[in-house]
Structures are given as structure tokens and as C-alpha cells.
Amino acid sequence: MLRLLLVLLLASGASAQGITYGDALPMADAALASADGSQTTLSASAGAAGLVVVFWSNACPWTDRYAPRLADLAERYTPAGIGFVLVNANDPAQSDRESATASREYATGAGLVMPYLADPSGALASAFGATSAPHVFFFDAGRVLRYDGTLDDSPASADRVRVPYLAQAMDQSVAGLPIEVQRTQAFGCALKQTTD
Q: How much is the pTM?
């Protein structure tokens, strides 16, 4: 029992690291490799009204369930000036499904029309405090964190969504309103990073 408690405490401490509401976009100008072979930065991917950064996996059933919802959000909010970026912070040496080629194929097949960046060392995930996929971070026009957590309140089914957390945060931010829900618990698969 004591061992379980220690593991839970360590896990909660690990997830508390990273950024919190009101923090600036970390590693904004760091050059990051994209699944298409190019390099870009988070700043370059941001729109005039903000940026959504989503830590993702090609080998997670939860990201598979969220992919159509994320594609829909990107289609709806990109014209409003919000950029979207996927980040694969899994080590491709641990699974071929997390390689750049697999990421490119996954994004195309899922209709995710946005940059898909690689973070195999986990440096970006660590700076953000992301430990699972999907994990969403929304930054406003000033590149300030306004929401982090899950896309909505129904990881299993789009038909059961009652609270679209990310969409609400984007709507409130664009309208200049306070963000009602600033953080939720991200739900998904653990990121599998290099263990050097």
C-alpha cells in the first residue's frame, strides 16, 4: 500500500511540472522537425488569434477516437485565426508507429491538416508538462496559456460530449471573455520517451 501511495505521489508531482494558466508559450522559437521533413517553430504555426498544441500518438486508441473531433475543430477555428499543431513526443525507437513516416501517414489518413512535429527526446513535452496523449494546450493571441487538458468531457464517444472544453476556451478567448474552465485532466496514453 505504501509503495502504491509513493508511486501516485510521484506521478502527481511529475504532472504538476511544466506550464500553468497565464504562462507564456514555451520553446516558441525552437526549431522543431516536422513529419514532412521540414522544420518549423511553434511561433510560426500560431495564428493571429492563438495556437492549439496537442501532444499526440499514432498508437493510442484515445487519439484515434479524438482525431475526427480535432480535425473538425481545426477546420472550424483555423479561419478564425487559431493555428493547430500536433506534437508526437514518443520515441520512434520504441514503436515504428511513432516514426515520421507513420506520423505523416496517420495525419493524412485522419484528416488532420496541421503541422505534425516530432519531439522524441521529450524536451517539448517536459517544458509543457505533458505526460499523455492527447493533451491539449491553448494559447491566446498573446501566446499566453489559457487552457490545458482534454478536448472535451467524453473521451470514448463524440455523441456523448456535453462540455467541449477546448472549443469553449477558444470561443471565450476570441470574444475577449474570461476563460471559465482553464484546466481539466488530460486523458489518454502515456508518452513513451527516450529513457537515457
A: 0.89
